[in-house]
Structures
1.
Amino acid sequence: MTKNLANLIISIRPKQWTKNLILYIALPFSVSQLWAVGDLDQLTLLLIKISAGFIVFCAISGSVYIINDIFDKTKDSNHLIKKDRPIASGDLPIPLAISFSFLLLVTPTIFAFFISTTFTIIILCYWILMILYSLHLKKLIFIDLLVISIGFILRAIAGAVILQIPISPWLYVCTGLGALFIGSAKRRSEISNSKNNSQIQRETLKMYSASTLDQLISIFATSTLMSYVLYSFLSTNLPSNHSMMLTIPFVIYGILRYINIVYSKNIGEFPEEIILSDKPLITTIVLWIFFSISILVIFRT
């Protein structure tokens, strides 16, 4: 019983829940619109609402991860690291995994209705998209990256829907391109780590080349930066004095730091590990959030 519970927790991949933190991006950008510094009651209420959405998304993601591991059981058993996953190793019975995945889909969906009908539609669209990804879309070159990008955009939209606040389309574009950048870096590291066994690890790797992914990383890194620059300059719900452009250096450094980690340490295969362990990158993210909120508090009218 205890062993199965531990294996179920491992299978829903808590470390990868960092991806769902994108839901919170709407909260700092709603300062001086939905809440004010010092208004702790309103901020707490909004934080509870967005955290509830975060928990729902984590549960839905966990359901997807379990199903994905079931589909990939044979391939994962040949992977250097993934072979130790509970389903791949046979430590977690598949019938139990399926039942738990179903529970993680149904229960949060019911709970989501109490948050927002639109939010419920978003999480169901996300679940369906990710199941299609696990079944077939991840086998298609470039499509696999686009699906991952759409998943991140849906998370960003979900956060805005929960708080009922409009977010600049430029921020959605930036989020999508950023996901393409991270996804390309992930594939690049997978190729480097797979050596001559890429077809066993991920089918699309035999269709990608290192040089192609190097170009994609360059393209999406540049596009992400440019979309953020345009967002900080053109978005109508930001301060009219364009002071948000002061946060651009943090974005530049964050992108450069990530690229350096991917190529020097070759750990881009696990983005969540980078985000949770690299102190300079964590510091950059914290500073970006601090300066963004400060600018919006001081200059937003």
2.
Amino acid sequence: MEDRQPAQRPVRLALIGAGSMGRNYARLIGEHAANRTDRTAGVDRTNCAGSPLSITAVVSRHEETTRWVRETLGDGVFVAPTADALYAADADATGAATGAATGDAETTLFDAVLIVTPQESHPALVEQALRHGKHVLCDKPAGKSVKQCEPMLATARANAPDLVCAMIFQQRMFARHRRIRELIRSGALGEIRRAQLVDSQYFRTVAYHHSRPWRSSWAHEGGGVLVSQGPHILDLWQWLFGMPSTVHATIPFGKYNDFAVDDESTLVMTYPNRMTGTFIITTGEGVGETRLDVQGTRGQLVMEGDLLRIWRYDRDTADYRRETTCFNASELGVEYREETLPEPDGWAAYWALMENFAVAVRSQGQSRSRGRDQKDAVEPVATLESGIRSLEIADAAYLSAWEDRTVTLPLDADRFERALQTHIAAEA
């Protein structure tokens, strides 16, 4: 029988970025530290006896944020004015230049960082954490452009598998999305020939765009809806269907707003197996929806919100097309069913992903301490490398729209970066 490990202390996080989302994550972690009765699906809790995460440090440049830390997280949380000061304090605490990546040393201030800052700062902060031997959980997107992310990705690869480097793409944890992926990967729908995703749930006002100086700009966000609201949906797309071979985009920049970036984008993608995909995202439509239509040779699936409508054929349409003597699909047997897979609340998927991160960190430490092969360690749901793929699709779409041509992947990141810098200069 395999030995059972005693309950472990939480993976200790340093929160870098205590704005609205950072505080939401902190509250979520605090709530689950107090109440461990949740039973979110899709997470292995073998290594998560007790609360799996705690916040032990926060980077705060503002007095108001420091007050919030004291009132919400308690006096025991270390507050540093900058990330540099955070790592210096950690080095002082451990008596060494770096902390212990597995969290074995009780003297470290923290084991991992939770990065929730504007996206242009993500690559430098991720690199800094990895250089100091810390695991990383970073909010989306990975950065402002694929080119900007290249040094960060190289550092992550150099430190793998000793350090877990993950991203917050919580839609991978939605029950309906996991069910769709299961149907696709199992072959239940046959070979996927066409897919269309329309997402209009992110209506945004002028007040929203003006709420932060870095919002909706080439210089700071690297674009509009595709890199602000779009990363979660683009990540879902590539998680379900993989990376396309080509991207052709139609983007009416500033369709609903007086700015240079996109508030609506339409992408047409092609795949090596001749699958075609259409992806539409907008922030300008009042009645929001998320609708996905997947057409395969053995069935069809339509997702409308929490509802999945599934049609299964009694044979592959490629075979039926060749063998039948009739002129249409009248002799094709079809079985229909519906499945409703709602999320318990808006934050359940976030928490499931955070728990997965804690499991990955702990399992990595256990594999190393027991001398096991690192392949035994749990991989995070969304690795940094997989998380950059949605950014590559977005960059390809922008390049396609700017140059009015179909862009082939892998992306020419240097060409895109030159074009981006041109648009940043024009915007200024």
